[in-house]
Each structure stands twice: as structure tokens, then as C-alpha cells.
Amino acid sequence: MPNSNTQMIQKGKISSIEGEPDRNGDKTTARVLPSTADSLVTRPLTIPWYLRGDMGNLSPGVEVAYAMFEDGTGLILSRMDGEWPGIVPGDITIKKGALTVQDKGVSVPSADVTASGISLNSHTHTAPHGETTGPH
Description:
Blueprint: E1 9-21, E2 27-34, E3 45-46, H1 53-56, E4 63-68, E5 74-79, E6 114-115, E7 118-119
Antiparallel strand pairs: 1-2, 1-4, 2-3, 4-5, 6-7
């Protein structure tokens, strides 16, 4: 068992979201009100990338697990309810492997899809009698 309350995983509720914005414009730290009755609000704790903005949907009152260190720094580890809204802001790069979408398919409402250099929006087919040909 740790020898002080500053070296363990704790539980509390978000008091405020603050800090410098990241590349997506999301704030990077939060203060937490520990669930222990005699505790004060923490110093700003780092919000990891996977919990920032719409991706983690943190807001005042949301219960979280967090780790504190002897120097007063800390890190929010997770939402206590385990929820994730399924939102990933920004670009995603898959360096190896494949992307498989099951069930509802892919929707691209305001952009184009390009595969092997061929645009879905602007490609043409050249068959003169309506038969299918490869895209051009």
C-alpha cells in the first residue's frame, strides 16, 4: 500500500476543463474534485489525447479515475462509466493492415472518395451501350 494519498489511483469528478489547446483545439488539462470528503480540487491534471474534446466527452461533474504523483502532477486515466461516444476527431492513418467496416457501411456526405487515384465523384465509364467498364 502506498505511504501517501498522492501516490495512488483515485476517483473524483471533473471540476473544470482548461489548459493549452492541442492540434484539434481541445483543452489538455482538467481539475478534479476527489471523491474523498476532505480533499481540495487538484492541480491541473493532463487529459490524454483519447479523452480530449468530443472523443472523451469530459465535462464538469463527470466521474473519472486519475493518478497523482509526489510532485503534484497527474493524469486522468478513464471515465468511471467507461463510455465512449465513438468520435475520433482529425485524420486517421492506418500504416499496416486494413480497415473493415461492418453493418452500416461508409458515409462521406461532404467530400470525395479516392481509390488508386480515381475519384468516386468525377470518374467516368466509357462503354457506349451502357455496359459496365472500369473507371477512367
